[in-house]
Model the fold of this input.
Amino acid sequence: MSESSLYLDRYKITERLGVGGIGEVWLAYDQELDEKVALKFLRPSFSKEQTEFLKRETKQARQLNHPNILRVFDFHIQPDSPAAISMEYVSGGNLAQLMNSKRPVLEAEDIKDWLQQVCDALSYAHEKCGIVHRDIKPTNLMLDRDGQLKLADFGLASQIAPNLDPESEKVIGSRLTLHYASPQLIWNPSESHHLNDVFAFGVTVFWLITASYPFKDPEEDSWTWDPDNLLSMSRRRKEKGVGQKPVPEEWDYAIARCIAENPEDRPANFRKISKLLQIGTKPFAAVGTPPPPALKLSSADSIPSEEEKEEKKETAKRPFLVLLVAGLLGIVIGVAWGVYRLKKNSEPAPPPVERVNTLEDR
Done:
């Protein structure tokens, strides 16, 4: 692609925006709908099977309709033209671009509202649509001109499922951002589980707060888990001499749980993460696909049902009812005893008994 060229006799290419694992991203003008769009062109090296996989994933991503998710419009493929995905264009940049020499890190106060919007978006995607993102990172947290966050790059999202086919694995493996990928996803790129998104979210927040990764930098396809390097965000900022405000303790705890090596130790969902961070998310009813049985969630992280909530309420009432009955019974017994004593005291005393002399007295 080049500037001023026309794609499919509809999109006028205007500016190159960047390049990613799938291919180049260009700003274009949609002459039919009279609006700007972003076009992500697939690498020419992609096979027919890999292209078909991306087409299926784009179709799934089109299901997502949420104010904090960048809209995916269509998948375009024509003979003698490169395949492309058309998406919503936002002009506010991304969170990574907010960090510079004058502001090397972001403060919790700066990003808490945006993180709430990320949690809302992923709660919706996971629980209502059963779709995982796979590539959460700062550059995919974009902002529109009004400052509202848009979670981008759902073009390689996938249905929550234990495994994908080999061709799908090749596409995902070629596109993973190792710094943010969980050990489970690196060891098995075909795995599709929402707890991988939880891990990537934790690394993303760690990087925004400290301008560093929580682990040793991965090299090529290797991944190193270094427990001695698992420092809190507060300690990392102190070591690097960055940041002006203290990191909330609950943030250190929440992010440490998100990046736990064992998936069962991570928060069960993004509503739980929101509570741990104490940022609050909008009410949301989970109606989507449950997590696969391969990864069991701890009972502490499970969401109680309405029946369980009612049972807890009834259980909480029982001690009060026992005390109330005991109190009333004590009052009844006290009144009865008082009446008995009053009646006893009001009865006339019996007449004195006269002594009768016996023979022995004589």
In short: Residues 92-306 form a domain with the Transferase(Phosphotransferase); domain 1 fold (CATH 1.10.510.10).
